[in-house]
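Newbie here. three chains, one complex. Structure please?
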Amino acid sequence: MSTSPYPWAAGFHPGDRPQIVTSRFQYEDAHTIDRFEATGGYQGLRAALDKSPEAMAEEVKNSTLLGRGGAGFPAGVKWGFTPQGVWPRYLVVNGDESEPGTYKDRLLMECDPHQLIEGCLIACYAAGLSQCFLYIRGEMPLAHERVAAALDEAYAAGYVGKNILGTDFSVDIVLHTGAGAYVVGEETALIESLEGERGMPRLKPPYFPAAVGLYGQPTIVNNVETLANLPFIAKEGSAAYTAIGTPTSPGTRMIAVSGHVKRPGVYEIVNGSTTFRDLIHGDDFAQGIRDGNDLKAFVPGGGSAPWFTAEQLDIPFEGPQAGAAGSMLGSGAVMVMDSTTDIPRAALSLVRFYAHESCGKCVPCREGGTWLYRLVQRIVDGHGTDADLQTILDVGESICPGDMPHASSERLGLDAVPFPYKMTTICFVGPSAYVPIHSAMTLFPEEFAALVTPRAERRSIPVMAGVGE
Amino acid sequence: MSETPDTETPDTAAPDTPATAAPSDVEATEEAVEHAPEEVEDVEEQPQVELDPNLVTVNIDGRDVPARKGDMIISAALLADTYVPHFCYHPRMSPVGMCRQCMVEVDGPRGPMMVVSCMTPVADGQVVRTDTDQVKRAQEGMLELLLANHPLDCPVCDKGGECPLQDQAFSHGPGESRYVEAKRHYEKPIPISDLVYLDRERCILCDRCTRFADEVAGDRLIHFISRGNDTQVMTFPDEPFVSYFSGNTVQICPVGALTAKPYRFKARPWDLDQRESTCTTCSVGCRTVIQSSRDELLRYQGVDSDPVNWGWLCDRGRFNFEAVNSEHRLASPMVKFEAGLTETTWNTALRASAAMITDALAAGGPESIGLLGGARGSNEDAFAWAQLADALGVTYRDAQLGDGLPAEVLGYERATIDEADGAATVVLLGPDLKEELPVLYLRLRDAAEKRRTRIIEFSTIESGMSPYAWRSIRYEPGAQPNAVAKALAESDIAEQLASGDVIVVAGRPNLAESAEATMAALQAVLDRVPSAKVLPALRRGNVVGALSLGLAPADADHDALATLSAAAEGRLELLVLLGADPLDDCPDADLARRAIAGARRILSIDTFASQSTQHADVVLAASAYGEKAGTTTNLEGRVTTLAQQVTATGTSRPDWMIAVELGLMVGESSFGSDHPLRGVSNVADVTELIAADVAAFADVTPAALAAEPNGVVIGPILDAPAPVVFSAPGRNSYDYRLVVSRKLYDRAVGTQMSRSLANLAPGSAVHVHPLDLDAIGVAEGSDVKVVSAKAATVLPIRADAAIPRGVVWAPFNQGEGTVEDVIDAGTATTDVRIERL
Amino acid sequence: MIVAKEIIARYPRKKSALIPLVHLSQQQNGWVTEEAMRHVAELIDVTPAEVYGTASFYEMFRFEPTGTYLINICGTLSCQLLGAEELMHHAEQTLGIRAGSTTADGLITLQHAECQAACSEAPTLQVNYRHRYRVTHDDFDQLVDDLRAGRLDGDVPPHGTLGRNRQQIPADRFVGAPDPDDVTEGPAWIQVSPA
C-alpha cells in the first residue's frame, strides 16, 4: 500500500512547502462541495466575476502561468491567440493524462474536482468560452465518478450552467470520458477524439486549436493542473502567485518521482528553483536511491524526455535549463534507474510504449516506431547484431533528422546536444519511440555492445521486386 | 502526456491561417490520366493565374513560380513541373499529411525547416528546396519505412508498372531494405464489394480511398479501423463498400491494394494503348482515357477535366466497357426472311433497308415514317441521320422516348456545371442525380458540402441529394408547379434566391407523371427568377447533341409518344429505331408494345439484339462506344471528342456511315446530287460539316477540339418553350400516387451485357412508407397487385421510410414484374390501388 | 435510450457522442457487439463503419466477449523497473492463461497494459480499471481469490461499467449546445468591441 500520509491520495507527500493545487489533499472529503466551500472554494470564481473578463485574463497573463501539459507555454498568452470576433469558442480540458511516469492530474481530479471545475469556470469567463468539455482518460473511473458527482453538485449550487451566481455568465461543463489512447493527450488528437473521430493529431499549422479547434472553432485546450492553478490566481492575485518560484517559472508544479528511489511519490514543488538532486535525494522528497545503490540514469520529464544521469542532478526545474542540458521537463515525471538497471530492457519498455501508442497516421511513427521496437526486442533477446544498432540510428534519423538531443557525459567525453529535436511526424509520439533508445545507446553504449554479435555484412533485401517490361 | 514539445509553439503560426485551402482550380492531372501529349495544359490556365489578385510568387529550387494564396507548396511545385514525391496528397481531396513523403525544405526565421509540402501553404517570397541532401535523405528514409511492410509481390500485382510506390521506390528510394522483421500479414485480397478487392498487405494507409468515400462520394462504408501499426482499411462486417463510385478508389490507390474485379489480371500497363475520350453512359460527359490491349477494351480511367468530372467516374460508366466486348454484340446485319432474322451482307441489308424507305414513301409519304433514337451515338451520327430524315421529309422523330423533357428545355439560357457549382442557389427539379447523372451529383454535393452553393430540392421521395440540400421539399406527383411557386414565395427562400446566381437543374423526376408538370415547375422558377439559367438534366449520353442537331421533334404532335401512337394506330409504314428500344425504355410499355406490333416495317440500327430488334425486318449492326471516333455533346452543351480505340465488332459500322450509305442508296428522293453528305469520307469530314452547317456548332472544329481537351460549349439552339399550364387531377384516398424513376443499374443493355454490373440492378418492387405497408396489411417482400385505371401488375412490396405516405415508388426498367404496364403516358399522373393477393 | 438522447444533446454535433455511446453499449454487454455499433450509428447519423472506425482506435473497447473482470498489468518503465514482467509471469501461471486471453470460466481476462498513471505505486495493475498498487505476487493471488469469491462485487463493477455514477445536467440549468454554425454572436458576458 501507499506510503502517503493520505491513503485517499495515493503517493502524495505534502512536505513543508507552499501548496497551491494540493492544499485540500489533507481532507478525505475534499472532493465534496461542502469541504470545498468550507476551505475557500469558489472564492476565486467570485473574485473573477467581480472583475471584467479582460481584467481576469490580464491577471492570468501577469501570473505567467505555464501550461502543465508538457509544452510549458504561458496559458494567458495561449488564450490570446483566439481570433477576434469568431464565436463560439470552446474550452477543452485535457485530463487524458497518460505520459509514462506522470500522475498528478488523476489525483487533482480524484481529490479536488471542484478546484478544477472552478478553474474551468474562470477560464471560460475570462476568455469568452461558451462551453467546456472536460475530457478524462477512460482508464480513470474514480476520477470520472468524482468529477461527475462534483459537477452535479456545482450545477445544483448554481456554479455551473445558466446565469452563474446570478450573473449573465453561463457555461456548461460536459464530462467526456475517453476510451484508451495515449495519443489523445496531444491537443489536436484530443479534439478529434472529442468530435467522435479516431484520435489522430492534426497538423499545426493550420490546426492550432486556438484558431481552428473543436468543430473548426477557436478552442482553448488546457491541462488539468494548469486550470487547477486558476482559483488561486483569481483569489490571491497574480502577485501572490509570482511570489512563489522564479520569474520565468512561477508558482509550483506537481512532480511524480518513481522507480528505484526510497520514497517514490507525487510532490508539489516550488517551480524553477527545485533541482533534480533535491527531488531524488532530498529528505522531503524521494529520499535517495533504494538499497544504497548508485543512480545510473533518470528520465527527467516523462517517458518522452531524453535521459539524464547524475551529472545533471543539479539542474533546476526550469524549462530552458533542462533544454540546454539536452532534455525537457515535459509533464512532470521523474523516473529513476539505479545501478542494477538493465538499460536496454528499460529502454525497451518505453520504445514498446510509444510504438504501441502510435496512432498510425504518420509513416515514420507507424512503421518506424514498430521497427525500432522489434529491433530493440531482438537485441534484448540476444539475437541482435552490431548492424542492428546502426539500423536503429538510421530509422531514428528518418523520424528525427539531424542532431538528436542528449545529455553530456564526462565518462564518454560527450557534450550535451540541446533540446528540441527536429521531426518528420506531426506529433511527438514518433520521436518519443526513438528518444529512449537513443538516450540509452548514447549514454550506455557498452550495454548494447555486450548484447550484440558482430556481423560483417549488413542484412538487406531488395525493396521491391522489379517488374520486367 | 504532454501537449507538444517546444518545437511547435503557437507563435510560429498566424492565428488567421485558414483551416483548409480552397480547392485549387489549377488544372490537376494527378492520378487522373494526363491529357494526350499534343494538348497543351497551360494554354487556358496560365492567363487565369496571372489575373488572379491573390497571386504570390514562390521560389522553388531557385526558380520563381506563380502560385495562388491558399495553395499548398506541393501543388505549386507540381504545376511548375517540379516533381515532389507523394502518396497521400491528391489535388481533389483535403490534405492529411499522412505519408510524409512530400517533405521539402522551406527557409524560415530559424533557418531551413523540413515541412510537408502538401499541408504547407505558399507564401509570397517563400524559398522552397526540393533537392537538398537532407530532403533526399528524408525521402529515402520515408520510402524505406513505407516499404518495410509492403509485400514483394509486384510481379503478380495489377498495379505493377504503373505503381506510384514502385516508381518512387526506384526514383527516390534507398534501393534496399534492412527490414528483416516479419511483415504484417492479412488475409489476401478480400472482396469489399461486388466490384472491388482489397489487399491490406499492400496498403500503405494513405487515406486516399477512405477520404474519397468520405469527402467525395459521401459513402462512408470503408474506414480505417484499429490503430498504429495495426491500422487497416476495412468495411463494417457484412456491410460491403456499396458505392456508385467505388472504382475511383481503385484509380487513386497509389499501390495495388485496391483492384477492380473487371480488370484484375487482365493486362500490364505497358501492354495498354490508350486514348482520351468522353464517357457517353450519361450526359455529364466525363472525360476518360479508354485503354485496350490486343484490340480489346480493358479499362476506363477518369481524366481530371476541371469543368466536368474532376477525374471521377461512376462505376457504371467505368465498367461498362465489358458490354462492348460482349459476345452478344451484333456482328453483322440481319434481314428477316421466312426463318426469321438471318445474318447477311451489308449490301443485301442496305438494299432491303433502302427498299423499305422507298416503299414507305410510296405507300404513305414521309408522314408514314418515324425515326426514334439517336441520343446514344455521336454528334456525327445524329447529324447524318437528321440530314437523312430532313431529306426524306420525315417529321416523326425524337431522340428521347417520352422519358425526358420536351426538347425545348434546351432553349433556355443554359448553365454549365461550373456555374451550378458555385451559384448561390441551385434549384433541383429532379431527377435523382445520384441515380441518373452520378458525377453531376458529386459536383453538386461537393458544392453543397463545401458551402459554395445552397441546393433547394423539390422531389417526390428522398433522393441521393436530399441529405445535402439546404431545403428538400416534398411534393405529391402532380403538385410540383404549385409546390415550387409556393416555396419560392417563402421569405427565407426568396431571400436566398435574391442572394446571388440561381441555376435550375431540370430533368424528369417521375416517369409516371407527365413531363408537363416539370416544365410548368421550371416556368414557375423562371417567373420568380427570370435571370436563372437552366442546366438540363436529361439522361442519355448525347441527348443534347442529338436534339440540337436535328433529332428533336418539331412539336409535341411528332414526338416519341406521338410517333409510337401513330405506329400503334397503323399509320406508320416504317419505324426506324436508331439505337432505341421502346419496349424497354418507353415508360408506357403498353403503348410501346402496340407500336411495335402496329408499325408495318421496322428498321433497327443497334449494337445488341434488344427486345425491339426481335421485331425488326432489318437490323443493321452498329459500332459501339470505343469503336468509332467523333464528338459528343454533354448536358451543358459542351462538345468533346470520342476516340476510336478498338476495331469495330464484326462488320458493324458507325451510325453516321449507315445514314450516308442509306441516303446514297435511296437516291434522289433523299440526298440530292449536291447534298454535302455525299462528299464525306471519314468522321472528321462530318464534324467539319456540322461546324459549317449548324450555326451553334460553328466553333466546334476538329482543330478547336484538339486544342481544348475540355471541349467547346455551344449555346442554346432551340426556341424556349411556350408557357405551359398544368394541373393535376385529384385522387381518391384509397389510391396511391405512383412515382417511377431510374436507378443507376437497370435492364439497360450496357449494364446487362457487362458481366460485373449485370447483377447490381436492384430488381422490381413497389416501395411504400412503413405505415402504409401496415395499412395495406401485407408483409414486407410479399407480392401485391398494383392496379391503375389502365392495367394491373404483380410486384413484391417493400417498406421504405424515404417514401412519403400516400405515394408508391417503383424503380424503372428492372424486368420481371413490369410497373411500366400500369403507366399511361397520356395522363398527367398515375394513381394505383394496391391489393393483397 | 433516454440516456443516449441526453448524452447526444450535450454536444454541438451528434458524432461527439460516439465514444460515450459506445461506452454505454459496452456497459450493457460487457463488450461492443456489431448490433450495438449499428444502433449507435443510427442514433448519431453515421455509418456503422464510422462507429467501428472510431471505436476500434481505442483500447478500452473490446470487440469480443471479455471476462467479467479485465486485469491489466502495467509494463511501462516505472513498473518494469519494479517487477512488472515477473508479476505478469506470475499472473499467467496463477490464472493458467497467456496475457490476452480469458479464463475458461469467462471470469477473468488478463492483459498487458501501458502506463496507468500511478507510477510511484509500482508495480500496478487495474481490475476493470480500478487501481491496485504495489502489487506483490501474494496480492495478486488474493485479488483473484476475492474476485472468484465475489468479495469485491461492491468495489469492482463488471467490465464495461465506467463510473458508477453519471453526470446529470438539470434541464433548468442547462445552457445548451447549439451547432457552432448557428452561433453568430459572442457570449452575453463578453462586451464585444466593435470590429
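Moderator note: Strands of chain A lie at 90-95, 131-136, 172-177, 219-223, 252-259, 265-270, 295-299, 333-338, 461-462. The mean pLDDT of chain A is 94. Thread marked as resolved.
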